[in-house]
Structure formats: structure tokens, C-alpha cells
Amino acid sequence: MYEPQTCSQVSFTPMKQLLFSRLAPAALLVLVAFFVLWKGGKSVDATWILALFAGAIGCHLAFDRNQSKVMPLSVWWSAILFTLFTIVSFLLSTTKNYGLDEVLHTVSFLIIFTWTHQNASDAFKIVFGKVLAVATLLASGFGVLLYLLQPVTRFVGSFFDYRFHTDYWPNAWAEYLLLAWPLLLWTLLRKEQSKWRHAQLVLIMGFVGAVALLTYSRGALLTFATQIVILLILLVWKKRQELRPRIVVMRSLGIVLVACLFFAGINLVRSHVYPIESITAKASFRSAEGTSSISERSSFFRQSLTLISERPLFGYGPYSFRFVQPKLQTVVLATSDHPHNVFLKFAAERGIATAFFFLFLLLFIAWSLLRAETINWFTLFGSISVLGVLLHNLLDYNLQFIGIALPLWMLLSMLVPRTSVERVQPLFYRLIIGSLSVLLLIVSLTEGYGLLHSSRARHAMKEKNIGVSEQEFSKAEGALFSRDDWLSRSLIALSGEDFQTAESRAEQYTILNNEDARGFRLLGDIYLAWGQKRDALRAYEKAYYRSSRNDLGIARGYATLLRTEEPQKLRDLKPDLDQLIADFAAAIQSNSHFVALSKNVEELEALTIVMARAFPEDATFYRFTATVARENADKERAVYTARPAGLLW
Q: Domains, the chain, ranges and CATH?
């Protein structure tokens, strides 16, 4: 059984020594497995568990006077400046109701990065590999059941949220496997010689290869190929004397064969209940999304560069891309929570300097590894894991999943060399870690109180218990991480025709987040119901120029008011509205981003009626477009309704 190293020179009581030298490493490894298995760690509760744990071990680090393994100065300053600039970016954010969770992630990862460098003995690394191996196999096993018994077209492992039909993340699962497979292989290679050792390795790695293929992730497949090439180069360069080419080739062929058999067998079973993806259609971009995965990523990259130029120092704030990008959008529904590139995300949201600090951190670690005369097997395979995650994040950002980001930061720390001339002064080091840890605990506890009441309020709101919902929202008032609370409270007031209160709450939301079109659309709805058409017109106008290509209800409300209040402005806007109608009609026909299942279909019909009345000479065009869109939507909805129900839920 694994027993972590203890710091015998630290003058703590035996109970405290037991707590921090044995329970803390065990708790961290349990959390790693938990985050992998519980929605990939992409949940609010996972964020707060991470923050509270990191704050606790950070306080221990701050009071631990035995800092014999303080990391090199270049690595430390890169990590700490990346964290501090992230905090400043949030304080200056234009979207303050969101982003606190990303700040908590960043501070927590810094503390765990530091703690791991202090405590990751060889025994800890072995157990770390075993924990990831077990978590990967458990998640893969459940993922097979999910793939066979639910109408989910791509394999997602444990990276899903069953409450929402859109929250299945095959690309994130594929990225996790890019991190996990090298460590899984390292763990299997360490097993003692036995009669079935080679068969076990081939079967397990083949099974993992199959569930990776079932994600149908083109980016992950390209990244995997790159990992293999780099691994072969490192093996020849650093481990040439230990290589046994014949065994490597035989095992590799066996793994490929087993992977293909598992892939075909699982798909064969699924095909009796649900349709399966076509490999050739996916590879040739003839599947449902076509080439949109490429074209949209390209537009996200360009748009992020524009956003970076607008606010280069500290960006728009953590998690702001989803709110500020729509104003640059040219294609309907082509929006995202991030620009699909880790460096562009950090630069656009947290500033150019923050992105460079993260890059410097990686480069300093990579340079130290390349300079090393020898490299052990854990470092070699761990480097391939890190490389896979980082390469995939150049095409698809998935570090919001704690199940990926936490083991990544731990691996980075384990790769940092422990011998260096330049070191951080222990007192300064402990002061920084201690201050951040205390701040992390205070914010987590205070915000957790608001989060609890906000959750209760949302549940009461779903159950139509308005009185309880109002009380709970009031208790959550003042939280930094308020998310959509003010929008929900405004909707409650609007439903009761308390227009003044509804207006006040919607305006409070726009103060916190002036970039989100939803706040201005809600203000427009409130003013329209209140009979204040001029105020409604101004609110809809602000919403229209922030996100006209995602919510047709904004265009419908804006056009409705322009028709009676400013008909000439509607005439000037007509070309853009006509293009918007045509684009949404085309999107409904292809069901792009499931738009045929959304309210945009009904909003399109309502908008065409407004436009037909305003421009009777084009009424035929509007009626025809609405009719065709409705027919296409009905077909898609019929297909969705008729598909076999899930057998698990």
C-alpha cells in the first residue's frame, strides 16, 4: 500500500503529520478519480469541492517551514503571474456575473501544482497512474452502456450531464483519453512478469483505443498520431538501449487489432437499436455538421484576434468570450463558450500577458526536459500525456473540465525538475501561497452560501413556488458568481406584472454584464408589456447589435417596434433582416445546432409576418420562407420525437 513521504523535520503533532502527509495525498487522488467519473468535473459543485480542498492544503503549505523542494524561479514566476493576472482580469471584467469559477480553478491549480511538486514521490506517481487507470476503465465501461442504451451518437464515457440532452461531450472525453492512455500504458508496463501480462496489456489498451475511436473526433485522432510520432522519437533518442523493437511491434499490432474488433463489435450491437456514425462520412466532412467544425473554428480564431486587439492588457474577463463574440458573428448560431484554442482564449479573456505566462511555464518545463541527459519512464510517458492535451487544446479548448485540467497540472508539476540554482525564497513563497489560500477559502465559503440559496431558488422557481424562490434569491443577493439570478428574478416580477421591479432587476443584470444581449432583450420585453414603446425600442436595438444571429426573438421584437415607431429605419435595416431570415431558414433546413428544435422556428414565422405587413410587395417571399422553414422543422421534430427512447433514462 502506498505511504507518501513525510516531512520529519516539521514540528507538527503526530496527528497533524498523519493528516497532511497521508490523508491529503489520498484525498487528492480520490478527487482526481471523482472528477473524471462525475461529469468530467464540469459542474459547479466540482469547482467548489476543488477550491475548498486546494485552500486547505495551501494553508498547510504556507505554514510548512521545510521547503526543501521549492521549484525553479522561472517556473514559479510564470505560474504565479499567470494566476495573478487572471485575478486582475476578473476584477476588471465586463461580464462579472460569470468567470469566478475560472478564477477559482486557476488559483486552485496553482496551489495543487505547488503542493504536488513538494510531495510527489515515486510512490505517489505510481498510485497516481493506477488511479487514472482505474478511473479510465470505469468511465469507459459505463460509457459503453451509455453508448449502447442511449440515443447518443458519439462515445462520451463519463463526460456528460444526463439532465440536458445537449450536454454530452465526446471531444472532451477524447481529450481526456489523450492524457490518460500514456499513463495507462506506463502503469501496465510496470506490472510484474506473469503469464497473462502481455495479453492484459493488449486487451486493455485495445479497449481504450476502441472507445477513443468511437468518439469520432478527428482532432483527437490527429493529436494521437502526433503523440505516437513524438513518443517514438523520444524512445529512440533517450531509451534506445532499453528498446525491444520486436516486442513493441507485436504489441502494437495486437492493440490495433483488438481496438478494431471492439470498435466493430460495439457498433454492431448498437446498430440494432440506434443508428451509428459513418466513418467515411465523418472523415470526408459529409456528416451532419459538414465542414462547420472547421469554418466555425476559423471564424472563432479571427474573432478572438479582434477581441484581443480591443482589450490587449487584461482582456474582457474570464469566461467572457460567449458574451462578447456574438457582436462579431456573421453566421447564425456560430457561437461558442470559447475560441477553441487555449492561448487565444487566455489572450482574449485574460490578456496577452496572461497567455504568454502560460506559454512560458510550458516552455520552461519542456526546455528542462530536453536538456536532461537521462529521462525516466514516468517522465517520458507523462510528457506525452501533457503534449496530447496541449495539442488538442489548440483545436478545441476543454480545460474547463476539472477531470482533465487537474491531472494535467499535477503532471506538469511532476515534470518540473527539483534541482536548480535559482530558487524562490521560502518566506516569499509561503507568503504568496498562504495569502492566495486564505483568499480562496474565504471566497469559496462566502460564495458557496450564495450558490446554495441560488440553487434552492431555481428549484423553487421550477416548481412554481414563487414565494420561496424570491426568498432564496434574496439570500443569494450580492454574490460575485450570480450567473443568471437577476434575469430569473426579473422574469418572476414580469410574470406578476410588477414592471418597475422587473425593470430594476434586469438593469442590475446589464450593469454586471453589459455584453449579454439577454439582459437587453428582457428589458425590451418588459417595456413592451409596460406600454413604453420608445424604451423598448432602445433596449431591443442594444440586444440586436449584440446577438441578432442567435436569437430571432430579438429581431422580431426590434422589427415590430420599428414598423410603428421608425418605419424608415426598418426600411434601412431590411437587407440585414432579409439575410437573417434566409440564413435562419437555411439553418432550420439543415437543423444546424439543433435550431429546428428551438423557439427560433416560431420566431421566424412571427418575424416574417411583421416584415410582410411592413413590405407587402415582398409578402410572397416571406410567406414562402416561413412555410418551408415550418415544414423542415416539423420533419426534424418528428424524427427527434420518433427516435427510440433511452433505456437508462
A: 71-423 (no CATH), 484-543 (1.25.40.10), 551-649 (no CATH)
